[in-house]
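Q: What would this complex look like in 3D?
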Amino acid sequence: MMIKSKRLHGNAQIKQQRIAYGFVFPYVLMFSIFIAIPVVVAIVLSFTYFDTVRPPTWVGFENYINLFTNDEIFMQKVLANTLKYAIIVGPGSYILSFMLAWLLAQLTPKVRTVLALIIYSPSLTGGITMAVLWRIIFAGDSAGYLNSVLLRLGLIVEPIVFLQSQEFLLTIMVIVTLWSSMGVGFLAMLAGILNVNKELYEAGYIDGIKNKFQEIIYITIPSIKPQMLFGAVMAIVGTFASAGIGVALSGSNPTPQYAGQLIVNHIEYYGFFKYEMGYAAALSVVLLLFIYLISRFAYKLFGSRD
Amino acid sequence: MAKSKSKFLGTKINPSRFDKSQIKYLLILSPVVMFMTLPLIYIFNVAFKPLEELFFYPPRFFVQRFTLSNFVRLFSVTGASGIPMSRYLFNSIIVMILVLFFSVLISTMAGYALSKLNFKGKKFMNEINTIALMFVGIAVMIPRYLIVEKLGLVDNFFVHVLPYLAIPVGLFLVKQFIDQIPDEVIDAARIDGASEFQIYMKVILPLIKPAIATIMILSFQSVWNSADTSTIYINSDNLKTFAFYMNTLTAGTNGVAGQGMAAAASLIMFVPNFIIFLVMQSKVMDTMANSGIK
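A: Here is my prediction, written as C-alpha cells for the whole assembly.
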C-alpha cells in the first residue's frame, strides 16, 4: 500500500485511476452480467421454490435440507460418483499434464511441437463433442470395436454393453475425460517449464542438486508456481465442466441405474426435466462451493499470497 | 566443478539438438501419444469408410477403400432441412471473429490495468476474478437464461458473442504474464511521454503475444464447440451455428450406417480446432522460447 503510491502523487494518481477504470470497464460489465449476477441469482433461487411458470416462493433452507436428507439418489449415487470421478480425474489429469509437459520440455523443439500437438489435440473438441467416437468404440454389440477385439482375443464370450453397464460406465467416463484433459493447463505448464531461467539450473547444480527429481522439486516447480496454480485450477474446473460426459456416452439422463450420474447431470435433470429450478439452484450452489473448497487447497499449495 | 558443469549440460531443458539422452523420454512418451492419437486415427478412418466397410464383421481398424460418401451424405441431409449448411458455417465464422477480437481486447485491457495501474477496488477485482476461475458455466445455466431474457437477447445474434467475452481464465493468464514485465519498462515509456493507452498498445501487447494466442485458443474452443447457445437462446434456425447443426446430425445416429456420417461430422468439428491451434501453437512456442523476460 505504501510502496504503491511512491511514484505517483495527487493529480497524477487520480488521473491514472480514471484511466484504469476505463481499461477495466468493458470486462467488469460483461463479467457482472454473465458471471457474477447469475451466481447471485442462483444463490437467491436456491432458497425458493420455482417452477418457471409461477413466480418463485421463499422456502428458506428447505431445498438444502431435502438435498441432504430426502434425496437418496443424491446421497447414494450422485455424491459417491462425483467424488470417485473427481478424485481420479482431477489429480490424475493434473499430474499427467505436468509430467507430460516436463518430458516434452526435454526434447528438441520440432519433436516437441509435434508431440505437444498430438497430446493437446483431444482437448480441442473435448470429450463431450467427441462422445460419438467413443460410442462407436465402446458399442455394446459384437460389432463394437472394443467388444470385437476382446471377443477375438478370447477374453470375453459375450459382448459387454459397456455404456449401459453399472460396472464400466464410470471407468469409461474417467478414461474419456483423461484423454481430453491435456488442455490449457498442460500448455501453460509446458510454456512455463520452457521459460524457466536456465541459469537457475546451473546455479542449482553448483549448489549441490544431484538429479532430475531434485531439479524438478527445487527449481522447476518453484519457478513455475503461477503456471502450476493455473494448471491446478484448470484441472479442477475441467473435471467438473466435462462432467456431462456420462450422459453423452450413455445417451440418457439419468444415466443407466445412475451409474455415471454426477452433480452436473443431477442439476440438469432437476432444472430441465423436472423444472424444479430452486432445487437445481441449491445443487448448483453446493457444486460451486465444492469446487471452491478444492481450489482453496490448490491455492494453499501454490499460491504466492497465503 | 568440472563434473557438475558437465552434468548440467546433460539436463538442459529445451535442447536445440537431438541427443541420445532424449531417447528415454521419447520411450516414456510414446504409449501416451499412442493413446491420445488412436481414437483420432480411428475416427478419421471411420469417416472415410464406404458403407459396406462399416458393416464388416469383425470391424476393421483401417479404411480400405477410401471414399467421401459419408461427407456427401452428411451434406445432402443438410440440404434437405431447408437452410443451407453454408449459412450455419457463416454464422459460426462471424461469431468467431467477434468473440476472438473482443475477448482479447477486453481481457488484455483489464489485465494491463489490474497488473500495472493503481486504482481503488483493484485488489477486490483481482480476488473476485481469481475466485471466478473456478466458475463452471453449466452450474448457472438457469439464472443466465433469466438474465438474457430480461436483456431481450433471446433469439438475438449477439447472444452468441456477449456471454463469451469475459473469460476469467483469460484475464488471469494475461495478468500473470503482464506481472512478469518489469515496471521499469513501463516507467521508461511514461518518461518518454507515452499515454497509458499507447503503453498498452505499443509496449504491453507485443510482449504478451503468447498469452493472447492462448486466450484466442480458449475462446475459439468454447465458442466453436458449443451448441448450447443455439439450443437454449436461439429459436430462429437461420441464427444457429455450425456446432448446433453438427450436434443435431450426430445425436440421432445410432445405427452402423449413421456412424460414418457421425464420424465425418466429428471430423469437420475437429479440423478447424486443429488448424487454429497449429497456427497459434507455433506462435506460443516460438515466442515463449525466444522472448523470456529476464
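A: To summarize the key features: Confidence is low (pLDDT under 50) at residues 1-7, 286-294 of chain B. The CA atoms of residues 26 and 33 of chain B lie 10 Å apart.
Q: Very helpful, thank you.
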